[in-house]
């Protein structure tokens, strides 16, 4: 008997649930329409006076069993949800979003396809210090059949007294070495007025973490036909990172590679905290390729291999890491770059892991 009664009651609740659902959605459509009218009249959508009046009237009619506080709470949630509905309508779909374009963007650089099935690798010294130093790394990369070579010529450094890079001289070295070994050159550009001239030297324009919100630089990079490697700012949220990429795409350049390079947190065991889950989030939310810079995120040679494996396992399209013939005497990032032998063993282990 009690069992039957319980079933009856549950059936009634189920029916009421559907009624509430229909009424909620009917209410939602009305709120959306009000939202459109408010927008046209330039009125603020959030109306606390109206909300207060509605709550007062509801409380006057409330015969229980729910107490007034509970009723207020439930309806406040409904108002909040309606407000969100009104805002979604106004939310422009980003060009970088999956919603806007479902298929993956594949960035092509000298025959290498970034964002396609195969993971890709970008290696090279932190800074171009000399022709010999740069060439030694490029030669080792060429022997491994690697194609994407990084090297910093313009170096935005925290301290003005640290090595600032060789500038145009560094880009000349990179170009020469790129031609000798048929490597694609990835190098950072820091000034909007340098973009045009840099096209002669680089195959990929890198925009560094410190410049992720240099909007004039982003716009200029958006105006040219050259792939851009955009690094996540050190304190940037994923949304801010996506909006930075949007600046570039909105000017006409869709050839963007996003690069997770760690964010600043309270943790000091690593140089930055590698936000590994940003990779699948960015892959889900955008159509752009995503790579991970294991050197700047970890700042530790001993973590380069596990961090790279983790990045590929979680869906990264590639890895970036720094290699120097003699890291101990490097002019920047001496503690985190691999020497050539370490590079051999790192790469060997990484690709054998990929094969298995
Ligand atoms: O009545 C309005 O002005 C609405 O926009 C609708 C509504 C609601 O859901 O009831 C939504 C948000 C406002 O803060 C107040 C009320």
Walk me through the topology.
Layout: H1 2-41, H2 48-60, H3 68-90, E1 107-109, E2 112-114, E3 120-124, H4 131-143, E4 148-150, H5 168-181, E5 184-188, H6 195-198, E6 204-207, H7 215-222, E7 228-231, H8 238-250, E8 256-260, H9 278-285, E9 290-293, H10 294-298, H11 304-313, E10 318-322, H12 340-355
Parallel strand pairs: 3-4, 3-10, 4-5, 5-6, 6-7, 7-8, 8-9, 9-10
Antiparallel strand pairs: 1-2
Helix pairs in contact: 1-3, 2-3, 4-5, 7-8, 11-12
The structure holds prephenic acid.
Tell me the span between the first and last alpha carbons: 62 Å
Sheet bearing the most strands, described?
8 strands, parallel, barrel
Kindly provide the radius of gyration, computed on alpha-carbon positions and rounded to a whole number of angstroms: 27 Å
Mean pLDDT: 95
Overall geometry comes to elongated
Count structural domains.
2
Oligomeric state as shown:
single chain
**Annotation, overall tally of beta strands:** 10
What ligand molecules are bound, each kind once?
Answer: prephenic acid
CATH superfamily label of the largest domain: Aldolase class I
Question: How big a fraction of the residues is strand?
Answer: 5-15%
